[in-house]
């Protein structure tokens, strides 16, 4: 998962607990939406812990998947999670992909674009490595709206501490909205561009189940949470807990939305 902040995504296991488990719900829906025929050659750009790569293998009968990430830690996690001879994991940069022109049928990216410094360059690179008639596609969280796991956290955090806004991807990642996604794919020369919402539920057995991933330090909200001293973190914890919708047995049910976008290479 490329990012201009190398300290943001340092721990594969912590990322799995925080976001990977929800991406596992989104990725299969996203992959089926692309309607790619069996036997295609795929590139997974910013493969992280292997969530999208796994969904491709499960649903699409690919001939090959080349999965690329800038993080060696994530690549180690992905290789441990995905054991399939059709997959090769490679370290690389989304803004300068070390693959030849037109070598893939599909290039995809999950939860990466907002962390890339040169976003237009990343989309152009994905388009470059895909053959004419092939597909470029991605998805990102709806940070400002219905990605409620994070939205509930930051809505409280920014009231208690305005400095929390510096970590809030709802304001710091304006690309994660339908119109900017449509525009960046079109600007990169892709055709027949489509954007859609993908929604899944996020269920937690208890508040502790919800809160624990914020203590992992991996990702923007956990990074902010662990920057606080203990009294401030406890105050945040108590206020988040007070505002979350909680069932009679302590269960919490939230919703999660991703925005998915795809286009065709001419």
UniProtKB/TrEMBL annotation:
Instruction: Tell me the ranges covered by the Methyltransferase type domain, including all copies.
Output: 44-137
Which Pfam family is one of this chain's hits? Methyltransf_11
GO BP annotations listed: methylation
Molecular function terms, GO-annotated: methyltransferase activity
Query: Which source organism does the UniProt entry give?
Result: Ollibium composti
InterPro entries in the record, alphabetically? Diverse_substrate_MTase, Methyltransf_11, SAM-dependent_MTases_sf
Matching Gene3D superfamilies, A to Z? Vaccinia Virus protein VP39 (3.40.50.150)
Q: What name does UniProt use for this protein?
A: Methyltransferase domain-containing protein
| Superkingdom of source | Bacteria
